[in-house]
Request: fold
Amino acid sequence: MFWKGRQGSTNVDDRRGISGGGLVAGGGIVGVIIYLLVTFLGGGEIDPNNMPSIQPGNQQTEMTAEEKAADDERAEFVRVVLKETEDVWNKIYAEQGKDYPEPTLVLFRGAVQSACGNASAAMGPFYCPGDGKLYIDLSFYEDMQTKLNAPGDFAMAYVVAHEVGHHVQNLNGTAAKVSQLRQQLSEAEYNRYSVKMELQADFLAGVWAHYTQQKNILETGDIEEALNAANAIGDDLLQKRSQGHVVPDAFTHGTSAQRTYWFKKGYQTGDLSQGDTFNSPDL
Ligand SMILES: [Zn+2]
Reply:
């Protein structure tokens, strides 16, 4: 993708330098306790301006200058992709006479707190309907290249666009309907709906790619990178990798073939009415 020099989104909350595990301070909390003890013992008034400051701790090992530069470049890339999704969804919503409430993207490293609970980088990128934010640890970018065999900048762009797809599902009520089913259905039955929802997010990512391509900012091979990523992160492949066999009932995202199919459908048509995975006879 020709992204360098393009405008980035302002809806990014960059928490990469902040530990997600709460306030872990080198001596900070101890400092506060000692301060309080001294205050209580001494009978003095607590002056908020005099409180020792607590700096959020950073549990990560220091990055080299080179690693940091690479990480910052990825952050910049993701910022641009988010802006491109804002352009497309603002336009689509405007055509329907509606406003598009843009989501916030939280960049984190290691662990993060969200309205959906604490999350670690191991979970991969996710969207939290509770706070309407996307969460991405940029190390996933590297995992895609090294562990999932899905290299390329557009593989990462697809992941961002997929999470934005979940935001759209949150806005239009689909997410609420599916989460309601969770109370009513068995796990296996619920998983079928979860797959439909994930495949629809892939479809919506495809719709985004459809409109983004019209701006002539995609490079040869970009769509293949996205399709390859959709293929690489299908549940059947991920499960084979982790368990050695495939258990269809436990699928929550769709098979590699399904993910590729729905992304492609969105990409080729750009037509939202084609993305009703919930009433698709094949699913
Ligand atoms: Zn998803």
Summary: The chain has nine helices and six strands. Residues 162, 166, 198, 201 surround zinc ion (CB under 6 Å).
